[in-house]
Design a protein that fits this description.
This protein has a single domain, classed as Gcn5-related N-acetyltransferase (GNAT) (Aminopeptidase, 3-Layer(aba) Sandwich). The protein is 34% helix and 27% strand. The protein is built from 4 helices and 5 strands, in the order βααβββαβα. Strands 1-2-3-4-5 form a 5-stranded mixed sheet, with helices on both faces. The radius of gyration is 15 Å and the shape is globular. The N and C termini lie far apart (43 Å).
Amino acid sequence: MSVCIRPMEPRDIDAVCSLIVQLSGHPMSLEDMADRLAWAERSPIDWLFVGEVDGCVAGLLGFRLRENLEQRSRYGEISVLVTDSAVRRQGVGRALMDFAEQMAREQGCIGTWLVSGFKRKDEAHRFYESLGYQTTGYRFVKRFDE
C-alpha cells in the first residue's frame, strides 16, 4: 500500500475530525479542528500531517519539537497518531511513524517520543514496541475542570 504524507490542509478537516473520533471516542467540531490547524500553521515547532491512500485521508500525525533541559538536547514528539480503522495494519501508521522519525533527524533531534494512554495498551502499545519504542515513565495529569 502506497502512503502519501503531506501537510494537513483545510480540505482535510472533515476526514481528520472522523479520525479524532476513532482515536478519542469523542467528536470534534469542524470549527475546533480548523482552529487547531490554524494554530499549528502559526507555530514554529508544531506540524500536522495526513497520510493519504488512493487520494483519501487514512491517517493523521501531529509532530512537535521538544527541548530537553537536563540533557541539552531536542526530541521530536509524536503528539497525535491515528490511522483509519478501515486500513489499520496495512502500513499507514508505520509510514507516519517513519516520517516523524525522519523529521526528528532532520531537526537535529536525538530521538522521538510519544504519550499513549493506558486504554490503548493492547493494540497501540504493541505497535509502538514493535517499532523499538520503550516505556520509560508515566505521565501525571491534574485536570482543573473535574
